[in-house]
Design brief:
The protein is α/β, with parallel strands linked by helices. The chain folds into two domains: 5-43 and 67-183 and 218-397, no CATH class; 421-595, IlvD/EDD C-terminal domain-like (Glucose Oxidase, domain 1, 3-Layer(bba) Sandwich). It contains 22 helices and 16 strands. The protein has helices at residues 5-17, 19-34, 44-51, 58-63, 88-98, 114-117, 126-141, 158-168, 188-199, 205-215, 227-237, 253-268, 279-282, 285-298, 304-313, 321-330, 345-350, 353-363, 455-463, 480-483, 492-500, 584-589, and strands at residues 68-73, 102-108, 148-152, 174-177, 372-373, 376-377, 384-389, 392-397, 421-426, 429-434, 444-452, 471-475, 505-509, 522-527, 544-548, 553-556. It has an eight-stranded mixed sheet with strand order 9-10-14-13-12-11-15-16. The chain has a four-stranded parallel sheet with strand order 2-1-3-4, sandwiched between helices. Strands 5-6 form a two-stranded antiparallel sheet. Strand 15 and strand 16 form a beta hairpin. Helix 5 crosses helix 12. The two termini are 40 Å apart. 58% of the residues are buried.
Amino acid sequence: MALHSKLRDVTDRIIDRSAQTRALYLDRMRDAARKGPARAHLSCSGQAHAYAGAGTDQSALATGSAGHLGIVTSYNDMLSAHQPFERFPDLIRAAARAAGGTAQVAGGVPAMCDGVTQGEAGMELSLFSRDVIALAAGVALSHNTFDAAVFLGVCDKIVPGLVIAAQSFGHLPIVFLPAGPMTSGLPNDEKAKIRQQFAAGEVARDALMAAEMAAYHGPGTCTFYGTANTNQMLMEFMGLHLPGSSFVNPNTPLRDALTQDGARQALANSALGNAYRPTCEILDEKAFVNGIVGLNATGGSTNLLIHLVAMARAGGIILDWQDFSDLSDITPLMARVYPNGLADVNHFHAAGGLGYMIGDLLDAGLLHPDTRTVVGDGLAQYTTEPKLQGDTLHWQPGPRDSLNDKILRPATDPFQPTGGLKRLTGNIGTAVMKVSAVAPAHQVVEAPARVFHDQEAVKAAFKAGEFTGDVVVVVRFQGPKSKGMPELHSLTPLLSILQGRGQQVALVTDGRMSGASGKVPAAIHVSPEALDGGLIARLRDGDLLRVDATTGTLAVLTDGVALRPPAQADLSANSFGTGRELFSTFRDRVGSADTGASIFGD
């Protein structure tokens, strides 16, 4: 099928907008590639330092003739999504040796969990951790001894940070190796119900704890479709994973086989062979457009409206939120995975998963078919799924029909005709909303504002019974310059209770919500933020606000708001404790949410 004309138009304008910065970036990558494999340029002393701990691989490394693979890992055993990576280096080393090469762990990057820090001071480091991860991966590869690399990462900020680093080392072939989701536990809708009951004082903490432990019960990513699993989808749509590898459970023979094959593929893509496939040629404008289409078709995390912009800019590609919104207008919502459905990612994968979606979107002309990937030229290979025959890994055609139309539908008969994301604009500024889980009856809210400077004040007002009518809850001074842009997901149960009582309710904030944004309309990432002169700093209790996902409107309807002096907030308590004092330079340097909320660039 021919490409959809609007897909082509959006891609062309991204290419035109990025022409100068992209050309400069590619020139740098070509210059790095021309220098060839780097180990031979090191002094003998430098090489000896690099190989001293390599054991039986020392001889192969010293000859300089074998491909050498760098492993950058986000392993820790506190977080379930990253615990499976403990075993990966041994699997990768064995695969590299079998292919005639070698592999070393080049370095580790931090991995934090927004679920653990939700509502806590540590959440104010979460967004900044993405750029720390990019910096740490840069340090890991700075020894300049590798012909290719594999990046081990899964969750919210880890994959975006690793992609930013991969762009900086874009002359290297890099394959991303996921760990996979945990097996299904307590259904997500039951977990959410108990959270609401606890927030309303209907059940005790022991019941809440039992439900949470039953939901988050083993190694792997959380099974709802939040930021972590959205990241995995993107890595397939953008060609950085092996086909069909995103949602294979940890510690299974198939997962191990995919890990080893990913290592072999990275070595095969190096400049030492005849199929050089650098990352800079994979992550082009078309790949990012494919990723945005996947984000919309699956109803993915709003966090990626920040991360994708930052990821692209690291490769000289300039995205803006209008690109996301315009692509949402033509992209059907094909999946219902919690929080915009009852299924989890294991059910989604069993119903046909990403291979089915990619095939159907290709047939509809809604994906660029001719992108480069880590396994070859063309996205069609990502319609296949991996299987084990004995100990041999091979790919076979994936399903061409959905195996459960309550979870996965074709582009010709979607859950809704447009994607899961919406850009909102108006006199308050620009914002984004995840609309895939918001019922049509709640997509337009016009109500008086209640204005707060932190989420704890919202919780206190709820407990005091102050929310008795329709309301737009405004939580400001949460932006990247104010507090590092924490997620406010702990407000979801409270706002859901109000909505369940029949009240019209919405959230407006210059902070983030979550990859788990659900049924309450939330205009998030408001830019300019309150600390940066945004009109949100001039709102007061009782101002009439309109949050309209159907027309893409975010506006204050009360006259004279722009003439008021901006509110001031005492943020001194947020500048220290839990490591926050170490990030003052980040808060001073960070860009706005709509440009990626990054410390890199201007």
